[in-house]
Amino acid sequence: MGQKLIGKVAVITGASAGIGKACAEAFAAEGAKLVLVARRKTRLDEMVKAIRDAGGQAVAIEGDVREEQTAIDAFTAARDSFGQVDILINNAGVGNYKNLVDTSSDEYDEMMDSNVKSTFLFARHLVPSMIAQQSGTVIMISSMAGIYGFAGEAVYCATKFAQVGFAQALDKELRPHGIKVGVICPGGVKTEFAIGKGRTEDGVAASLMLEPEDVAAATLLACTQSNNSRIIEIQMRTMAETLT
What we know:
single chain, 44% helix, alpha/beta, globular
């Protein structure tokens, strides 16, 4: 086990698969105590067991990140189990790749609530404790779709641009309290994300996209800076990206 996050408590949303799971594994390997949040209880329980079996500490919160109570429950679990919150990784999110005219208002709401509202809710309920202790790190897992617009992804891009703007504003608002805020913007990643909603399992498997561990490594980097430095934004693309 590494030492970079010994004594730190991290809350990770969307922790049952993909980037969130990779972040949980990377942070646990560096000694962080974890509060893992997701809807799939069986997967969360398996992760908690694996982390504890390896000598780490973790608790699971089953819940929908779109619901305010889930954020409250995550903070309560961190406080009651570990006494503090040092790191928040706002990772949970959904995608649905469709042209504007084919996107329903329900699909709009799902993406906005899952990607943007959840980011707000968890920051809103965990940041006050960071302000009280005058330290902490908040990271949003956004996307290159939060930097550039892509055809067939207008609503998804809107949610990811919102996360980038949210992070930029919070960086200025929270830095006087000793809190670092940053955003990670990867390109496509080999996960379950958007399977059946614009992506296919075979297409993802055959792709040369980033691995979840690539994004987890960048997230860990952003959370292990020296006290006098912070990472504001990391943009990531696969080395297999074409040059045209």
